[in-house]
């Protein structure tokens, strides 16, 4: 019965009411029915859904037993790549990102979502792309950002040679089999990584993940 109740709630989120109805508020974001509808099959996830979900992952990471997670929002990387560190240094005002274990950087490449993950414990920067494209230049851009951020905020020089940069290969992570699931892949990569779990899902899980995310966003609680 619980599962049926959840299913009918998810269907109602898609089908009843006006596009501008606000269905969830948190993390200084208001998610409307129109936003939620991007989670319908083959919908293209928008910035608000991506950022809200990252917010849920960060909230969960404050609980006992999870790595400490910091997530940049989806506009960070495009701003960084067009302006360098000085254009984004205010984004971390009052925050020491180096006090975290994992930093998530969701990236919007015009018509595709990807994810960059900094693991401060391992000194690794990994790039996750569900279409298998390489992001070595993106890893380098973020490492340079970390060097400048560390120098500016903590007066500590990072040693670039101690860091490992790696674009995940198609044999290492699951790949999407359509043109619209990249956002869901990014959210689920981030979900598994932020629990220190191996990435074991497949493209077949996507319809289920989409519906689950609707419930999680509305209830502001990860299942």
From TrEMBL:
Entry keyword Mitochondrion: no
Any one Gene Ontology molecular-function term assigned to this protein's record: deSUMOylase activity
Domain Ubiquitin-like protease family profile: 29-193
GO annotation (BP), single: regulation of macromolecule metabolic process
Transmembrane segments: none
Entry GO CC: nucleus
Keywords on record: Hydrolase, Protease, Thiol protease
InterPro entries: Papain-like_cys_pep_sf, Peptidase_C48_C
Metal-binding listed as a keyword: no
Family listed: Belongs to the peptidase C48 family.
Stored PANTHER family: SENTRIN-SPECIFIC PROTEASE 2, SENTRIN/SUMO-SPECIFIC PROTEASE
Protein name per UniProt: SENP2 protease
Organism: Struthidea cinerea
